[in-house]
Specification:
By secondary structure, the first copy, chain A, is of the alpha/beta class. Chain A is elongated, with a radius of gyration of 23 Å. At the A-B interface, helix 2, helix 6 and helix 7 of A face helix 2, helix 6 and helix 7 of B.
Chain lengths: ~350, ~350, ~350, ~350
């Protein structure tokens, strides 16, 4: 931590600040006088609150954090890529994993048919929501626990892992019973009780970036889960809120290489929610892989015009999904990634029924 | 809802869109051909998901919501101001209420001393956090349930209402047992399970705007609580995230008159978190009142340099707090507000001990 | 300037960085080793580009500016408020100045009638655009030089100063011939050739903040004019672009006290463009004055529904304008400001013709 | 244009609004009453200002644009891709063009050496600034007209086109004399006098997106140039300003497919300014191409640590540049693009001298 003083403060004030700092055990102040301002370096493990206090003190212009506030999530701490192995499917490192499926689980037939198509196209994980976070209280809120069972059944039958969103600590256990990966939605990235609860289990977690969160806050949210004892965390970029309204969000692809350099955790991209428009899913999926993503989570539906949530607007049709995966299979090796090594070639596209 | 087609689509496509709309019971389509595009008005109560589906259909350029998705929070539905009466303290309408206190409850002595000073200055509500939402897992997380008891005790002794933050549905009951008002923090504005739980009780709720939420999303979040059966909701503007980093957030004071015109609920301003800098609390408090706020929630601490959270940086000293309230008492009548009618003149400032 | 290294870099690399810094004349490096990272303070007057170079060097994590890049605009350099005296009207310090008028000058009759009403209400400056910056090339672009003459005439007749926007260096001289104050619009805040040209004259300049500019960039833009030799600069907050679309911009009122603390220049608020909605002009005008603004620039039109630009939507009617000024006159002394000392009491409202 | 009324307004008010609309020649109003609000469609070519006026009228809730305000830039107007042919180098369509070079031209030797390396790597255009837009007045402002001559000489010798930034209308002619392409910087995207001047010549223009501009504003800015008579416009995405500060800007890659669908103009990506960090240039260049960009503009310098501007921090070294182009050559065909068809295989990297 570094303290920068206001210009022209007197020595007595500097000494008071130094004394205030050194009251903290194991912490030393290191004063460096400039022509205009004085800079005080703080050496040792200081409590983050110390910086905030100092910022409020008389004579202090600014306080700058030097060390990161997260540790376990940091690549300094864990230089090698984390690779999460779930029943033989590897996520992280040079593997490119594709998660596909509907926004919401609707009926056993719907999820079974979509699972079949995800598998045929080369996907490895089936996505689907049973509990839906909705802006207004009068919208469809998901089919609930029954949906978890439907999805688990479909995943098992077609040889796919499953991922579903969990919204509150009390549902973590039941979701973990049915699904292979638990997703934390963008609105819950800083739902700290939920994060803490997820730290107490071992089920892998896909943590979505808050739509207005910085990289630093995102990694601190991951740190909550890691610090609780669950090392199986994936980060997911899903678009941030900006002034542009043509797209639902602005997919921040720089987040992929930045998060991979700051952290060892796998980084997944969500071009469906990140754009909110079906026609942008293909180019932004390719761009995500080219930027180095460890995987994609993509919405696909057999009948998007009649899906129960309105997210059909961004869902690919099954033939678009299969074509995309075929093209990603070609693109992956150019950026040092392998596409679904366990499987037959991608894009064995088959007919589907609505 | 209004559907705008792409330019130059043929009649057959328009008929398909109309047929798709009219499959919904009680909904009619009204076609209006322009020189370039066709506009289809949807008349009747359509499901919000219909609009999303339409947006994804071939030939559709855009879909525009005409009706608001919230009802109970809307001034159309409830033209008069909501005035919440808590043990004789009225919030809403022409009343100007001041809530003051520390970021976090620390010790019985600390909260008792601060309560005494809030009361002496003319405040009516004591604020203080027992559970603290913190970006990183290694920061001080609050003193917990014990803090609730300390604050309730201090409030009772000094004749103040109390307000505290609740972060998760399972803590709603215990917080409501001790505090007069429950606060939902900015990160939980869309924690829908928490909102639903708060709808099942009658304790007044101060709902903070998500730091990246629109007015529409904010009012939809309030709607969750209202729709559950709890009519006692206050809205709180506390700053939004922008590209400016000099202030912690950008306090959006236009939110005050806008929310008051869209809704009947009281609007409170938080200049402490909204700026994150002590020296800005006074001008932005006055500006909030001048913009028409129904109240303020302001951090005050007897010893901010040694507070347990780092939020001391934005806490007023007791003498600054007393002076501010004295000045607000003069300002209030100029904008049609009454300052704390139950009490002695503001700002009877007294000595304090750290 | 402070350089923060990456963690665990070796001594040789640190020495290279130090050597690189000390190649610059009059600059010294001051090394401070922490437990994790090393901090190198740079003492002396370093070129700003040095920091950028250092940021790109191997082993460097971050570079932090300590000194401000602007000097003449800074309160460190000029501790007293700048008060600009234009023909006896004082702008800055404890004076509250009101500038009012139409978005665009349209006809001699229009501007004369509006000038009469601005004066009657207690305004001191007549605003009006002759050259209009418009998003699209097919919109009305202003009446040009003729408009300047019409406005000068109306100002003279009614005893008002005049302010008009200048968009390009080649028009600076002609605008300065007719108007008392030249305005730089939000889109031109970083039109450096225009700023440099304005530095060569003595006519006062009202510089609007770029709608996506930081305080630091804003003060650096002012520095261009000051450094050229023109000390008569006013800063104008006029709203920034955020994700909220209900208001045209988000008026950032914290900018008022912040800019007044960083700089000695007067700060004017523009609640008309800052909100883009007529009904918000009154509350946000009052909030601006309560936050400490040195003046307001407000749109007023006798017939806004038929104005030549579309900005009628945010123009006050003359009676609203007169009422607002009357209320501001009462509010001003509560925040240490004096309203138009040269004149009769505000708000002597009179009938008007469209 | 569509007008949406407030709820529950009476028929008389609706008739007044209709009468107001129909005063405009060639414009018709089409009323459609909903259960709650009335929608009035405006048919015919209405002036954009009409919408703004209507928005300000009593009883009007909102006004929505249906037609785009730009025409010549729109793909509706010009369905085929624009391909700009400059001395045989084709920009647009399936061609992938690479522009490379330093931030600023410094000396004849510097620009000659860099030109040699751009050419050897497979680039087709040499970039370099002679006039530099700088935030503060005390930074290096470019070498001026002499720099234009140096760059023209280097381009000619090595068989490269040249591109340079022009900042003010009066310099357009001299810049066009020396350079093959003129660049409008992000701060000047809405410098309308500059845009108008560029419309009067035929030299191709690369127009950078304002760092806080919407797609709609960007295309309207292009429209100024096109409407003036210059059809040779390229659009350049260079990052927008968001709350994230780790990267200098947030490169919005969705802009590439969106602009290509709304417009026929070529879209170039600038990963150097779009990220502000050297290590992100490679992944974001690949992502840009994968998203469908028609070209890239990339900073490269033989000695970035000693460049005259501080932009060395984002400049690639020559070997990184050559490696990148070699990889892009492989990537291009996977997304339907051809890399520099006129040349030898990319990446014939050669030694360089600082």
């Amino acid at each position: 931590m570094i303290v920068i003083t206001k210009s022209n403060i007197d020595n007595a004030r500097i000494e008071e600040i130094v004394a205030y700092i050194e009251r903290n055990e194991g912490v030393q102040a290191h004063v460096s006088k400039g022509t205009d301002r004085t800079v005080i370096g703080i050496i040792g493990q200081a409590d983050p609150a110390l910086g905030d206090h100092l910022r409020g003190m008389k004579g202090v212009e600014n306080v700058i954090k030097v060390s990161k506030s997260y540790k376990l999530a940091s690549r300094d701490f864990h230089p090698d890529d984390t690779i999460i192995d779930i029943k033989g499917v590897k996520i992280g490192g040079s593997n490119l994993v594709i998660m596909g499926g509907p926004c919401a689980v609707e009926t056993p037939e719907q999820i079974d048919e979509i699972a079949r198509l995800v598998k045929a196209a080369g996907g490895q994980v089936l996505r689907g929501g049973a509990f839906k976070p909705r802006t207004g209280p009068y919208s469809f809120q998901g089919v609930g626990v029954e949906g978890l069972a439907m999805m688990a059944e479909a995943g098992k039958k077609h040889g796919l892992l499953t991922i579903t969103e969990v919204m509150t600590p009390e549902y973590v256990d039941v979701c973990a019973e049915y699904a292979d990966i638990l997703q934390v939605g963008t609105r819950n990235m800083q739902n700290f009780d939920l994060l803490r609860k997820l730290g107490t289990i071992q089920t892998p977690v896909l943590l979505k970036r808050g739509f207005s969160s910085t990289y630093d806050e995102f990694l601190n949210a991951a740190e909550y889960i890691l610090a609780g004892g669950n090392p199986n965390v994936m980060l997911c970029e899903r678009g941030i809120r900006t002034f542009e309204t043509y797209t639902r969000n602005t997919l921040d692809l720089s987040a992929i290489p930045v998060l991979q350099s700051l952290s060892h955790l796998p980084v997944i991209s969500d071009p469906s929610h990140g754009t909110g428009r079906r026609e942008l899913v293909e180019p932004m999926s390719k761009a995500s892989v080219a930027a180095g993503a460890n995987g994609l989570i993509v919405e696909m539906h057999t009948d998007p015009d009649n899906s129960m949530t309105g997210d059909g607007v961004q869902s690919l049709f099954p033939d678009q999904f299969a074509k995309l995966l075929k093209e990603l299979e070609q693109l992956a090796p150019l950026v040092g990634k392998e596409f679904n090594t366990e499987k037959e070639p991608a894009g064995a596209f088959v007919e589907w029924k609505k």
